[in-house]
Design a protein that fits this description.
There is one protein chain. With about 575 residues, the chain is α/β, with parallel strands linked by helices. It has helices spanning about 1-20, 170, 175-185, 185-190, 210-220, 465-470, 500-525, 530-565; strands at about 30-35, 35-40, 55-65, 70, 85, 95, 105-110, 130-135, 155, 195-200, 205, 225, 235, 255-260, 265, 270-280, 285-290, 295, 300-305, 310-315, 325-330, 335-345, 375-385, 390-395, 405-410, 415-420, 425-430, 440-445, 455-460, 475-480, 485, 490-495. It is about 20% helix and about 30% strand.
Amino acid sequence: MATLYTVLAIAWLFYKVTPASTSCLPGCSCTNDNLGRSLLCMETAMGRIPDNVPNYFSKIRIENSHLTELPSGSFSKVTALASLWLNFNDITLMNIKSLEGLTNLTELRLQGNKLRSVPWTAFQDTPNLNILDLKLNRLDVLPESALRQLPGLTYLDLSFNQLTVISRDVFLNWPLLNTQERKGRKEASSGEANVVLALHDNPWLCDCRLKGFVEFIKTISPPLILMNSYLTCTGPSSRAGKFFHEVGLKTCMKPEASATETNMTVSLGDKVTLQCLVKARPEPSIHWSYNLKIIKGFTVAETRVDDETIRSQLVIPSMHLEDRGVYTCFANNFIGNFSVSFLINIKSFNASSSSRGAAMSRPPFPLSSADENVYIDIRISKQTVYGITLEWYAATDNPAETWFTIHVGKYHSDKKELTYIGPGINTYEVNGLLPVSKYEVCVTLKNQTPRAGQCIVFLTGSDISQLEQREKFIHIIVIMCAMVLAVPVGMYACTTDTRCTFSYLDRCTEQCKRRRRQEKTLRTNGERQGTFDSLQAASDEGLCRDSEELMMKRRSSQDKNNHKGRVQDPQETNIGAKLY
């Protein structure tokens, strides 16, 4: 009889142990205890949640197994599951239906993963959840409604994450906390379980946005217990390292920017510093723009005046003509934005037209000696409907100290508008030109008067509508075989250096003949297209015709002058092709 009992006992033990052992997942172990059956998978190469997890487990622990995702319905068949530990994996994504079917789940631990966010509505499927461990993740946002789906939660660990700012409403919306507050502190502390909250070791940004949360932390008392009550500020720098109970925060406000001087007139070459004082809560983002373009080339420095005020300085090391205009200091935070503008003008060096004949101020550069002779190559590099852009080149010994004077005005007028150009600049825009007007533009070295070859004379066209229709075309014409000019459509151009010998004209005529022979060769290969080269050739054709006619007239004029016993040079010679 004793032998029979022994056999039955062995059979019962085999029945209890064999199912759990034979149904375990590869690389895992299964055990039984008073709470039910458990699945333990430690340091496996699982990589993903298995599809064939048996449905009778009450506790599952899968750690260091390289899981990367909690997909939809991960454990939906394990309806008896009460405790789920998935610590120290590589989980980055948690599906909104990942907890589906786990109505009996009371403990969820996801410590040491890589979660940046959690779908808090997923906890609608876990109404009995008491413990939620999200320690050592990368959470940086906690929505105000995060805890609404966790009415029975008594332990929440959010420590060692990346939380910087959260609202006090997150905890005011916590159903369990609200219930206990309605019952009263004394009754709750005696009859209800404590609620443990861990929020330490987050990079808290102690500015106005954290004001409500800091005030909430200061008033915490049982049954709500902080695991570590010494929460520390990480920023801003003025509050870094301080405890919450040591700081007093104010209400947020949008930026207010101000400046002591917003209208400035400076000289060429001056160093200019624009200063903008911005007061805001929280700390604003500040940037500068010039004529609605973001400035990247100049130096911008920011210094903190106090907890709410920042001084931003834009430094222009040397003012050039192209640097004049409107500069704007922009400041913005999440509440609003503000801006302040600065107008910078360059001191005018126009010739004095007053009856008193006051002397015109000179730029702060060395003056030129009368015998300093530097060749200046000047040309019109760009056209617009109502203006041109000059470009010049001069070979000087010290370019860093060389400045130029631009002379602009009507051709026969003695009054010219003078503009001084500092070192390092070789372009200048002439705007506001009138139609059917003859202009002269000269570029001279320093304070010298214009010399031969340093001026351009041009006549503006009369058909403005035609100019507007073809304003994008730049025609290249050769003037006296010595200068290349890019002039606007409908304009004439020539230089005032008109003392051209017949050898120059002969060489020009010879070049024109060679150009014609080349054009005949090109026509055999196809029609000429409207390219930059064809525009050059078309202009050359017109120039050739005008050059030949001019040479005939010059020879006839010279014969007459020789007959009178003297030679008279014409005051001006307009050489060029009018472009239609």
